[in-house]
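User: I've been trying to design a sequence by hand for this structure and keep getting stuck. Would you show me what you'd pick, starting by listing the structure so we're on the same page?

Assistant: Good idea, let's start from the same input. This is the structure you sent:
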């Protein structure tokens, strides 16, 4: 005879333990009666779940969390947008604190967020928190329900969903309570293209771009492209921006999922389909039998800023067919394309270890498909091109009519107009957000004594100093407060 986990734990013990995560209704539901629990929870949590992620896993996880916690502290992202939730809850907390409510103050100071979904879903929550400028921004733990799951893997939460039963949820909550906070850099991206007088480069539809990229119509007088006739998109990311072969494979996967969503209801099947598409697109084995695709040097000039205000050309080998600007040590499902070179190589090239909070982004290239396979080796890595606090891509005339780009798992097909340098993509350091990390965390902080030591670039400031106040305000809104909202018809199952 077997006993259920709830029976073994005992109802009173279980309720006592789960009370550590409990938030009462008077904080969650406006105008509720102020009924406070007997003690302040040590780890109050808000849970956001993409119920359409991971096939049936998202829906099952939603049901389990609602059965374990106060259902009002668990939100289905398919029904409720996180910006509205956090805005309302923090407004309530602020009002209660003004009236001397110490319980509300304790909740605000210790609040943690759990987000379950793919990297796109996790990035959505990080954008919300960044945009809202909350008085005490809560750190975020990520449950891996997507295809790549680079964000959860980077901070020790694994690649695969830990389970949707009550015991698995309880174990995850325990990890959240014991997790440590870690700051990570966020990155601003701006994309500019001249509106064509004729030809096929039409403005990109809002649903074809990653959800973190948004059109801005105001043109700053201080902007070098500050003239009519340009389309401007601004956004942000936390893990990577990539361009070339890998983004093309990702685009094929997302396109296939939109056409046949019924085939993508299982996490393992999704990952297998991704690998299969990689083979047919030429990312894994195709280059053995066909010519390499257009290389990056043919279509774009790349510049980097290693010191404040000083752009310099970055030489891209003509063999590079894919380029990745990487913030975290996890790409395409857990690979680290930067690798761990010998310290002498670091010093000879003026490089530092890839910390996630140093204001530097690592730029890595891949020559072809076979080069991508080196990531499968224990010490495999791509071609290390540079570290910088800003990167700029200026696309050249006529080399190609399009390329593929990807931000944190979300790809798109980027048209390249015929005019010279009419498309510009610029990435710059923006700020930081807080993540929750387990002891299995792969990311390293420059402030962690256990991280490897290296010489640092002290002149490594964000590139915002020369921006006007209006520019900074636009740059601030790459999250959800005003500009990160999805249209009502958007299906969040398309998020990775």
């Amino acid at each position: 005879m077997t006993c259920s986990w709830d029976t073994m734990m005992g109802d009173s013990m279980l309720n006592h333990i789960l009370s550590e995560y409990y938030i009462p209704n008077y904080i969650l539901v406006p105008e509720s009666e102020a009924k406070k629990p007997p003690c302040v929870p040590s780890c109050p949590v808000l849970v956001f779940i993409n119920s359409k992620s991971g096939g049936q896993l998202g829906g099952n996880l939603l049901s389990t969390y609602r059965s374990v916690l106060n259902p009002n502290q668990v939100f289905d992202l398919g029904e409720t947008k996180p910006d509205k939730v956090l805005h309302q809850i923090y407004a309530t907390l602020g009002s209660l604190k003004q009236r001397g409510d110490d319980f509300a103050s304790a909740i605000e100071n210790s609040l943690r967020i759990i987000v379950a979904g793919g990297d796109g879903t996790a990035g959505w929550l990080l954008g919300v928190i960044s945009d809202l400028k909350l008085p005490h921004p809560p750190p975020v733990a990520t449950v891996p329900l997507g295809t790549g799951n680079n964000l959860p893997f980077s901070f020790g939460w694994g690649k695969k969903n830990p389970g949707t039963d009550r015991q698995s949820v309880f174990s995850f909550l325990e990890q959240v309570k014991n997790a440590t906070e870690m700051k990570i850099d966020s990155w601003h991206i701006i994309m500019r293209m001249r509106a064509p007088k004729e030809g096929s480069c039409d403005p990109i539809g809002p649903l074809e771009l990653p959800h973190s990229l948004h059109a801005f119509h105001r043109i700053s007088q201080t902007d070098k492209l500050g003239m009519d006739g340009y389309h401007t998109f601004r956004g942000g990311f936390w893990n990577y921006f990539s361009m070339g072969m890998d983004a093309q494979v990702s685009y094929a996967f997302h396109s296939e999922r939109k056409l046949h969503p019924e085939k993508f209801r299982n996490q393992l099947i999704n990952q297998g389909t991704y690998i299969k598409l990689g083979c047919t697109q030429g990312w894994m084995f195709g280059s053995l039998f066909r010519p390499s695709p257009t290389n990056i040097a043919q279509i774009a000039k790349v510049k980097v800023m290693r010191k404040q205000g000083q752009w310099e050309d970055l030489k891209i080998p003509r063999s590079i067919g894919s380029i990745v600007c990487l913030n975290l040590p996890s790409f395409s499902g857990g690979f680290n394309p930067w690798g761990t070179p010998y310290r002498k190589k670091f010093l000879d090239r003026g490089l530092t270890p890839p910390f996630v909070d140093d204001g530097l982004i690592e730029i890595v290239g891949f020559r072809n498909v076979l080069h991508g396979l080196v990531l499968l080796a224990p010490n495999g890595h791509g071609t290390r091109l540079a570290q910088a606090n800003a990167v700029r891509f200026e696309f050249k005339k006529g080399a190609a009519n399009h390329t593929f780009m990807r931000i944190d798992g979300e790809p798109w097909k980027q048209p390249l107009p015929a005019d010279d340098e009419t498309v510009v993509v610029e990435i710059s350091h923006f700020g930081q957000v807080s993540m929750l990390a387990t002891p299995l965390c792969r990311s390293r902080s420059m402030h962690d004594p256990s991280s490897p030591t290296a010489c640092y670039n002290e002149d490594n400031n964000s590139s915002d100093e020369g921006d006007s106040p209006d520019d900074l305000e636009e740059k601030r809104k790459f999250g959800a407060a005003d500009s990160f909202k999805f249209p009502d018809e958007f299906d969040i199952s398309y998020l990775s």
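That's my pick for every position. To get oriented when you compare it with your attempt: The first strand starts at residue 45 and ends at 49. The mean pLDDT is 76.
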